C-alpha cells in the first residue's frame, strides 16, 4: 500500500512539466488521479504513465480559464471516485516581452489562466472539502509571486495575485481541517518557455540556474500533507533574490533588468508568437523543456553568475 493509497488527487496543468511529474510522484504513492489540461492526447499519455507507476487515473479535458469547465472537473472527480482529497492548482501559461508590446488579449488570457484558474479551482474544490470535513489545496505560484522583473508583466502580476490569494485562504480557513499551501518555483526546466507567447523580435530563454521539475513535484506532494509547509520556495539560488529584493530593492531593480535582457532574451526577426496561451498545441508536452541539456548550459551558469555579480557591484557603487 502506498502512502496515498485511496486518496483522490486532482491536478490541473497535468499534461506537461511540473504537473506531469507531480502526477507521476502521486501515482507512485498509490493515489487515484484526476488529470486535467487542454490536450486530450497528452493527458492520455500521462494517464498511461501514471498507471505504469501504480496509480489510477481519470482524464478530464479542462480549460481552467473557463469556470464551468473547472466546476465540471470537480463533479467528474467526485462522481468517479466519490471524493476529492487533494487539488493541485498548477495550470499556467507564459508570455514574454515589454509591457507595451504585449497584446491586451495575451495579457488578459495569462491572467484568466494563471489567476482565475486558481480562483475557479478553489471555488470548485472547497465545497467538497467542507462536505468531507477535510482536504488540501496546493497552489503553484512562482518566485515571481514574491519578486518582480521586467518583460514578464502578465505572468508576474498573476503570480503575485495567486500568492496573495493563498495567504488569504489560509487565514479564512484557520480552525478547519482544510489546508491551503503555496509552492513558489524558481526557474524550472519545463516546456513553458517553448510554449510562451513572445512579443515580436524576441524569444524567451530561462534564466540560470535551472531546477528540475522533480524537485517541484516533491515540494507539492509534501505541501499536500497534513503537516506540510504552508509556503515553499523551490530553488535556493534564485530564492535568495527574495531576501536581496527585501534588503536592497533599488539595487535589485538595477540588477534584474540587465540580467533579463542578457540571459533571458534572444533577439530574433520573428513576429508575435502566441504559443499555447489561447489553445493547446505547438511545442511538445514533455516533462522537461530540455534546457538543462543545452550545450550552452555551463556557459550560461558561469556567465549568469558573473554578470549578476558585476551588475550588483556596479549598482552598489553608483
UniProtKB/TrEMBL annotation:
It comes from the Bacteria. Transmembrane segments: none annotated. GO terms for molecular function: oxidoreductase activity. Keywords: Oxidoreductase. The keyword Phosphoprotein does not apply. Pfam families: adh_short. Residues 7-191 form the Ketoreductase domain. InterPro entries: KR_dom (IPR057326), NAD(P)-bd_dom_sf (IPR036291), Sc_DH/Rdtase_CS (IPR020904), SDR_fam (IPR002347). This is SDR family NAD(P)-dependent oxidoreductase. It comes from Labedella phragmitis. The lineage of its organism: Bacteria, Bacillati, Actinomycetota, Actinomycetes, Micrococcales.
Amino acid at each position: 500500500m502506498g502512502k496515498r493509497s485511496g486518496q483522490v488527487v486532482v491536478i490541473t496543468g497535468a499534461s506537461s512539466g511540473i504537473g506531469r511529474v507531480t502526477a507521476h510522484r502521486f501515482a507512485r504513492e498509490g493515489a487515484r488521479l484526476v488529470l486535467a489540461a487542454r490536450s486530450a492526447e497528452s493527458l492520455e499519455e500521462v494517464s498511461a504513465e501514471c498507471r505504469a507507476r501504480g496509480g489510477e487515473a481519470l482524464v478530464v479535458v479542462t480549460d481552467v480559464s473557463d469556470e464551468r469547465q473547472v466546476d465540471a472537473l470537480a463533479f467528474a472527480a467526485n462522481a468517479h471516485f466519490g471524493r476529492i482529497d487533494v487539488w493541485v492548482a498548477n495550470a499556467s501559461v507564459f508570455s514574454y516581452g515589454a509591457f507595451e508590446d504585449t497584446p491586451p488579449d495575451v495579457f488578459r488570457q495569462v491572467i484568466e489562466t494563471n489567476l482565475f484558474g486558481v480562483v475557479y479551482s478553489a471555488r470548485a474544490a472547497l465545497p467538497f472539502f467542507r462536505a468531507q470535513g477535510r482536504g488540501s489545496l496546493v497552489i503553484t505560484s512562482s518566485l515571481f509571486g514574491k519578486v518582480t522583473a521586467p518583460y514578464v508583466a502578465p505572468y508576474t502580476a498573476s503570480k503575485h495575485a495567486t500568492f496573495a490569494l493563498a495567504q488569504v485562504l489560509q487565514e479564512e480557513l484557520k480552525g478547519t481541517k482544510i489546508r491551503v499551501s503555496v509552492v513558489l518555483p524558481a526557474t524550472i526546466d519545463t516546456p513553458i518557455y517553448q510554449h510562451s507567447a513572445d512579443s515580436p523580435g524576441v524569444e524567451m530563454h530561462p534564466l540560470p540556474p535551472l531546477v528540475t521539475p522533480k524537485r517541484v513535484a516533491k515540494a507539492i506532494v509534501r505541501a499536500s500533507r497534513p503537516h506540510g509547509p504552508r509556503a515553499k520556495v523551490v530553488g535556493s539560488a534564485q530564492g535568495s533574490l527574495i531576501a536581496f529584493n527585501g534588503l536592497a530593492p533599488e539595487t535589485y531593480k538595477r540588477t534584474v533588468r540587465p540580467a533579463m535582457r542578457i540571459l533571458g532574451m534572444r533577439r530574433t526577426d520573428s513576429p508575435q508568437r502566441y504559443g499555447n496561451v489561447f489553445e493547446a498545441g505547438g511545442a511538445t508536452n514533455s516533462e522537461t523543456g530540455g534546457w538543462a541539456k543545452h550545450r550552452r548550459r555551463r556557459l550560461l551558469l558561469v556567465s549568469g553568475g558573473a554578470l549578476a555579480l558585476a551588475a550588483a557591484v556596479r549598482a552598489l557603487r553608483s
